[in-house]
Amino acid sequence: MTTIAERARELTDTREPFVHATVVRAQDPTSARPGDAAVIRSDGSIEGFVGGVCAESSVRAAALDALREGTALLLRVLPEGAAPFPDTPGARVVVNPCHSGGAIEVFLRPMLPAPAVRVVGDTPISAAVATLAAFLDFDVVAADDSTGCTAVVVAGLGKGEPEAIRAALDAGVGFIAVVASGKRGGVLLDELGLTDAERARVHTPAGLEIGARTPAEIALAIMGEVVRAIRVDGLAPSAGAPAARPQQAVDPVCGMTVLVGAETPQARVDGQDFWFCCAGCLASYTAA
User: Fold this and answer.
1) Torsion sign over Cα 163, 168, 174, 177
2) Would you list the DSSP string of 183-200?
3) What DSSP designation does 285 have?
4) Is the dihedral of CA 267, 273, 277, 281 positive or negative?
5) Are residues 133 and 177 in the same domain?
6) Cα distances (Å, whole numbers) of residue 15 to 12, 18, 87, 141, 153
7) What domain range is 30 assigned to?
8) Residue ranges of the TRASH domain (predicted)?
9) Structural domain total, the chain
10) Cα angle at 277 between 272 and 282, to 5 degrees?
11) Could you tell me the pTM of the whole model?
């Protein structure tokens, strides 16, 4: 557990999304025990232990779904012929024909990096935005690179604005707030010669209309608009290429969904590739 906890902290510090899996209940015979844990990364790789090969395959597949949806999931892995388990919100049941015979329940918790906001400028407003963003659990980015940021707030009040806006657009940032009056902001965007799609990503005057006057109030209006864009409009962070979702296949022997990787048991029969949850299913298939 200490090792998995340390690994989870490392992934969190590097802003890498992952799923923290914890065995919460195990029924003999099974190799897993309550408290066993693992982390599953977005490429489907797993570190730690949550059961044997067959159970692990089910956990990995469900973890990727939890990561994609951003919601926690209780996974119950049952042996074939087990009594049905009620289908409840937030829970999923898989029947594992090659499981050892016991049942396990694994809690899958997606760990997504906090949204990042880059604040450009050295003004009282930029300082207030950075302070409020940190209070709201945003990662406040100090570097000049906007890649990976959810939003960029340009609060230079006339200094370095065109360069900051252009850099944020080129980095793929979906929400760029520019602190300026409506008239000055419009002139600024006209001078940049933006496309319609680019202009739609730039918000000026920045912030919700709340009659803000002080730097703190302006920061509140700006971060309120950013939060609304995330929670209501589905604003996502800019990114480089996201991790490719691993290929999935159905084991022709037991019917399990397996993630295809370099170590996944495989057979090529009559020019067609088949993948298996474990060596036992592979041997059963090739012997038939």
Assistant:
1) negative
2) HHHHHHHHHHT--HHHHH
3) H
4) negative
5) yes
6) 5, 9, 33, 12, 21
7) 13-113+244-282
8) 251-288
9) 2
10) 55
11) 0.68
Q: Give the separation between CA 95 and CA 279, rounded to whole angstroms.
A: 18
Report in angstroms the alpha-carbon separations of 196 from 32, 149, 167.
55, 21, 17
- Name the maximum alpha-carbon separation found in the chain: 78
DSSP 93-126: EEEETTS-S--EEEEEEEEPPPPEEEEE--SHHH
C-alpha–C-alpha distance, residues 80 and 145, integer Å: 52
pLDDT band at 241; cut points 50, 70, 90: very low
| Res. 238: pLDDT tops 80 | no
Question: Are residues 130 and 99 both part of a single domain?
Answer: no
The answer to whether 49 and 3 have CB atoms below 8 angstroms apart is no
Tokens encoding 288: 């038939």
Q: What is the pLDDT of residues 102-127, one digit of tens each?
A: 788 999 999 998 899 999 999 999 99
In angstroms, the CA 259 to CA 62 distance is 10
What would the two tokens of residue 200 be?
A: 């739609």
**What type of residue sits at position 209?**
E
pLDDT at 231 over 70: yes
* Residue 8 domain flag: no
Give the closest residue to 222 by CA, choosing from 236, 211, 206, 234.
206
CATH classification at residue 170? 3.40.50.720
User: What is the mean pLDDT of the segment spanning 134-154?
Assistant: 90
User: Going by DSSP bridges, is the β-strand pair 37-41/46-48 parallel, antiparallel, or unpaired?
Assistant: antiparallel
Are the C-beta atoms of 108 and 132 separated by less than 8 Å? no
φ, ψ of residue 41 to 5 degrees: the values are -90, 170
Q: Are 68 and 244 in contact (CB under 8 A)?
A: no
